[in-house]
């Protein structure tokens, strides 16, 4: 017998000794995770976060008793709602389950999961589908920024079959064009948060750039590596990972983000000269481990950095022949290449700004139905020592009133 519970606003229901919540599992780019309608979850706050942690199995080291995975790329959550903002179709709130801390961080966007927002919105009836292509206008709640997507549609639904291929994902699928319209200062309010293209941090040259995501960019050779190592090799290097985290935290303070030791931002990327047809090689930390491919928002930020004179990235490009014309950049990563087109503009004060950035990703709907969690799960979690320092309730932009 299914009965409505007072736990949430609408559609979390109790079935025997478990709760069930409507859920769609999506692959977005090189990541995957559950997509929820905002109306199906408790309001932003601790109750919602505890529910999501239990659904993902975040308190169990191998994630056997939940639908999350054992690395950051499979521990992502998307919460979608029809938008009341002018010129926007849907609001997208991203939550990163922090596998090292068993918390949820809402401080940054995820561009790979973002690529599945358009198809999800079409299939959920949140936007009116076009005949062949549907434009979905998205507001990212985490950063307060706008993104447009072009989704291939067929018979009123998103189409997932096509010839687009992205490195890090097997096979081909329909392309999703993701265009970031409002990129600069995602969390700091400035493209160069420190006001400089390069800062010296503990004897290391670092470029602090904020475009789609705040990022600290470091020459790989300055940390004693080539920058072409696999993610597995880098993640096994405990000394390197500790140094990366140390520099990341210092860069975060320089960027005005305060103590970032409990946050997933800023990210840190190690760069090197290309070897396999790209314009630059990158190793992107998420932040505690190296990404097995590359983040979409990270590609936007690194791409912009390549076009800003004086940064670590642009200096490296100048040494190997300079940036390509037209802003078309291919970034080498552990699984291949990621391509991003960055358009720059000059202001009246002759300062460079990012006009837009676009990438092609693919996405796929994996399953749709309900995800279950034990009735006692929320009370059990509430009594643990698990803290939620980066809960949605701590971020004004994550509130429904934003």
Give your account of this protein's structure:
- With 402 residues, this protein is α+β, with helices and mostly antiparallel strands.
- It contains 8 helices and 19 strands.
- It has an 8-stranded mixed barrel.
SSE blueprint and pairings:
Elements: E1 2-4, E2 13-15, E3 18-28, E4 31-37, H1 46-56, E5 76-82, E6 90-98, E7 103-105, H2 111-114, H3 117-123, E8 133-140, E9 145-154, E10 157-158, E11 175-180, E12 199-201, E13 204-211, E14 213-219, H4 231-235, H5 238-254, E15 267-272, E16 280-285, H6 296-306, H7 312-319, E17 328-333, E18 336-346, E19 352-374, H8 377-382
Parallel strand pairs: 4-5, 6-8, 14-15, 16-17
Antiparallel strand pairs: 1-2, 2-3, 3-4, 3-19, 5-6, 6-7, 8-9, 9-10, 9-11, 11-19, 12-13, 13-14, 15-16, 17-18, 18-19
Class from helix and strand fractions: alpha+beta
Average pLDDT metric: 89
Give the overall shape: globular
Helix share bin: 10-25%
**What spatial order of strands do you see in the largest sheet?**
3-4-5-6-8-9-11-19
Helix-strand string = EEEEHEEEHHEEEEEEEHHEEHHEEEH
- Rounded to an integer in angstroms, the radius of gyration calculated over CA atoms is 21 Å
Mind describing the biggest β-sheet? 8 strands, mixed, barrel
**End-to-end gap:** 38 Å
Unreliable segments (pLDDT under 50, ≥5 consecutive)? 1-9, 380-402
Number of distinct helices:
8
Strand content: 25-35%
Number of strand elements: 19
């Amino acid at each position: 017998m299914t009965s409505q519970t007072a736990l949430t606003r609408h559609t979390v229901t109790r079935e025997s000794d478990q709760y069930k919540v409507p859920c769609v599992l999506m692959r977005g780019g090189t990541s995957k995770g559950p997509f929820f309608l905002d109306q199906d979850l408790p309001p932003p706050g601790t109750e919602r976060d505890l529910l999501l942690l239990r659904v993902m199995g975040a308190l169990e080291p191998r994630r056997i008793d939940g639908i999350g995975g054992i690395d950051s790329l499979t521990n992502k959550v998307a919460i979608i709602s029809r938008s009341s903002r002018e010129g926007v179709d849907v609001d997208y709130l991203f939550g990163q389950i922090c596998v090292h801390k068993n918390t949820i961080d809402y401080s940054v966007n995820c561009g790979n999961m973002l690529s599945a927002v358009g198809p999800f919105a079409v299939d959920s009836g949140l936007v009116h589908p076009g005949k062949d292509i549907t434009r979905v206008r998205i507001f990212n709640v985490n950063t307060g920024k706008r993104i447009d997507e072009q989704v291939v549609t067929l018979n009123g639904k998103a189409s997932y079959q096509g010839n687009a291929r992205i490195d890090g994902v097997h096979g081909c699928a329909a392309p999703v064009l993701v265009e970031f319209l409002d990129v600069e200062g995602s969390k700091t309010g400035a493209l160069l948060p420190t006001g400089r293209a390069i800062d010296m941090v503990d004897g290391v040259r670092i470029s602090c750039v904020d475009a789609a995501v705040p990022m600290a960019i470091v020459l790989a050779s300055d940390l004693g590596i080539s920058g072409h190592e696999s993610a597995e090799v880098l993640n096994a290097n405990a000394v390197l990972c500790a140094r990366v985290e140390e520099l990341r935290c210092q860069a975060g303070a320089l960027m005005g983000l305060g103590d970032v030791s409990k946050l997933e931002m800023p990210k840190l990327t190690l760069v090197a000269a290309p070897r396999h047809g790209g314009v630059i090689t990158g190793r992107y930390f998420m932040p505690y481990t190296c990404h097995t491919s590359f983040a979409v928002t990270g590609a936007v930020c690194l791409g912009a950095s390549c076009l800003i004179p004086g940064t670590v990235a642009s200096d490296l490009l100048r040494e190997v022949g300079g940036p390509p014309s037209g802003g078309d950049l291919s970034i080498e990563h552990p699984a291949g290449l990621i391509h991003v087109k960055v358009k720059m503009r000059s202001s009246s004060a002759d300062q460079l700004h990012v006009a837009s950035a676009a990438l092609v990703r693919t996405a796929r709907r994996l399953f749709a139905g309900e995800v279950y969690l034990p009735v006692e799960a929320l009370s059990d979690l509430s009594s643990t020592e698990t803290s939620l320092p980066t809960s949605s309730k701590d971020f004004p932009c994550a509130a429904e009133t934003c």
